[in-house]
Amino acid sequence: MKIIFLRHGLTESNKELKFSTPKTKLSKKAYIDLDKSKKNLKNYKIDKVFTSKLIRSQETAKYLGFDEFIEDERLNELDFGDFKGQKVLETKEKYKDFYENLKNNPYSTKYPNGESVEDLIKRVNDFIKEKSTYDGNILCVSHGIAIRASLFTVLKDLNNFKNFWIDNGSITVFDINENKTMIECVNLI
């Protein structure tokens, strides 16, 4: 079986370097990348589709022709807590102590009223473990940092977490057979 992660299409928040909110929607320019996603997904038989609870992932699934999907909050993006809706550069000026702590403890530092990367990896890992016994291929429309977290449920090496990038509309595929999980591809666009 395969678990195929697809990052949602481009949003205005992505373009403006803002922390997204649960209501963030796709940009009109999202469909350029998503048309490439459609072509890449033709190489896979999709038996079941999951999305995060966030609107942009559901809009992506619908654009790709998947009107029937199951929402699962474990596929949500990292919860940035109080930073949601703010510009990244402005938060770096306003919350210098937080960013210093994040620099020193990048995986265990929780965003104010949000979560840490370790929290995210735990919930994504829980999703993957639960779904890995499914008899068929699963498409998961999710988010950049959440998909990076999925890689580290397999790699178990957080030292390289920042070395991976996940583009809007790209797919990352896990091939799961006989309790072994292999990374088939990362960030295919």
Q: Overview of this structure, please?
A:
This protein is an alpha/beta fold and 189 residues long. It has one domain: Rossmann fold, CATH 3.40.50. Helices cover 37% and strands 17% of the residues. The protein has 7 helices and 6 strands; from the N terminus they run βααβαβαααβαββ. It has helices at residues 12-16, 30-41, 55-63, 88-94, 96-104, 117-131, 144-155, and strands at 2-7, 48-51, 70-71, 138-142, 171-177, 180-188. The chain has a 6-stranded mixed beta sheet with strand order 3-2-4-1-5-6, sandwiched between helices. α6 crosses α7 (144-155). The chain is globular and about 45 Å long. The protein starts with a strand and ends with a strand. The model has no long low-confidence stretch (mean pLDDT 95). Its EC number is 5.4.2.11. Keywords: Glycolysis, Isomerase. It is an enzyme of class 5 (isomerase).
Task: Give me the secondary-structure topology.
Blueprint: E1 2-7, H1 12-16, H2 30-41, E2 48-51, H3 55-63, E3 70-71, H4 88-94, H5 96-104, H6 117-131, E4 138-142, H7 144-155, E5 171-177, E6 180-188
